[in-house]
Design goal:
Blueprint: H1 5-16, E1 24-25, E2 30-32, E3 37-39, H2 42-49, E4 54-55, H3 63-72, E5 77-80, H4 87-90, E6 97-101, H5 113-119, E7 124-131, E8 141-148, H6 155-178, H7 216-226, E9 233-237, E10 243-255, E11 265-267, E12 273-277, E13 280-289, E14 295-296, H8 297-303, E15 311-313
Parallel strand pairs: 1-4, 5-6
Antiparallel strand pairs: 2-3, 6-7, 7-8, 9-10, 9-15, 10-13, 11-12, 12-13, 13-14
Helix pairs in contact: 1-2, 1-6, 5-7
């Protein structure tokens, strides 16, 4: 059961390990983009190429869907980046339902753990397989594996590393279940009053808005945790008040004392822009103006008449 590319690696690994996947469950096809073309999830595309049966329920409590699952007689259900399952579904298989989560539970429960570990400036994260329970991301842990985070690592890099590592730990988990050596550990054994549990809720639009009056490290971690998707953004404001939404993908921080107003910038109008933050600057390396393609800062400056009377702002 899964939807995005992150789940495809796990499905592929299970197939390569020789496990018989009786069906794949994913979201219904939906219309996307300006042309409103009907698109399939990454998991569905992969499953069809492999000749696997695909189920796409609108409602996971739908009687027809649940009956179809029962007819398949699954021994184990595997969830990777999917929706929250109703109890009638996750209790169905003989060996239950397991989930691959991209954090070291019980830390960073929620929909966006990879984003939040970067946004919080963590130096380490990991992967967890666990048995589904009634509350989200609270079931007994089966296996965990730690991963270090690079000081300048962005979301796309960490996501891809965790996707590959996650597929491996998932196969190890299923192997242990198959031979009867899985030893579930309740998460409550890892929780005590001296440790604050950090959450990883879904990323909202307001979470992506850059506030330049904050410290360099805080802004840098935010940009790292949101690039390339859903992408941090700011408003570029002209001297006459015109506002342009700009997504900022790659930056280079500079820690230096200055007297510039946060959001103002310095540029040679050819090769660089550096935006002032509370205690330093950011050299912008890649950005995207609304309605245009992602580009380098040099390409942006070649096609845009910009001077230092403009500024970046969190307000439109």
């Amino acid at each position: 059961m899964g939807t995005p590319e992150f789940a495809v690696a796990s499905l592929d690994a299970l197939l390569l390990a020789g496990y018989f996947v009786v069906a794949v469950v994913t979201i219904p096809d939906k219309f996307t983009g300006r042309g409103k073309k009907l698109s399939q999830s990454a998991v569905k595309k992969f499953a069809l190429k492999k000749g696997l049966k695909v189920l796409q329920p609108v409602r996971l409590k739908d009687e027809t869907f649940v009956e179809e699952l029962k007819k398949l007689k699954p021994q184990l259900q595997v969830v990777v980046a999917f929706r929250m399952l109703p109890e009638m579904v996750w209790q169905l298989p003989k060996y239950g339902t397991i989930n691959l989560h991209a954090s070291l539970l019980p830390q960073y429960r929620g929909a966006a753990p990879i984003n939040h570990v970067l946004m919080n400036g963590e130096k380490e994260t990991g992967l967890t397989t666990f048995l589904l329970d009634k509350e989200i991301d609270t079931g007994s842990i089966l296996l965990q594996e730690k991963l270090s985070i690079g000081d300048n690592e962005y979301l796309d890099s960490l996501h891809n590393r965790m996707m590959i590592a996650g597929a491996k730990i998932l196969v190890k988990t299923v192997d242990k279940i198959r031979i009867g050596k899985a030893k579930p550990m309740p998460q409550k054994l890892l929780v005590n009053n001296t440790v604050d549990l950090k959450s990883a809720p879904k990323i909202l639009r307001q979470d992506c808005l850059i506030h330049w009056d904050q410290p360099v490290n805080k802004i840098y971690n935010m940009i790292r945790g949101l690039s390339p998707y859903p992408a941090p953004f700011s408003f570029l404001v002209s001297p006459n008040g015109r506002c342009i939404l700009v997504k900022i993908y790659r930056v280079e921080p500079e820690h230096i004392t200055h007297l510039c107003k946060p959001g103002s910038f310095l540029t040679d109008a050819k090769t660089f822009i550096k935006i002032a933050a509370l205690n330093g600057f950011f050299y912008i390396l890649e950005l995207q103006m609304e309605g245009r393609k992602r580009m380098s800062i040099a390409a942006f400056l070649r096609g845009f008449d910009l001077n230092e009377n403009w500024y970046f702002s969190a307000k439109k």
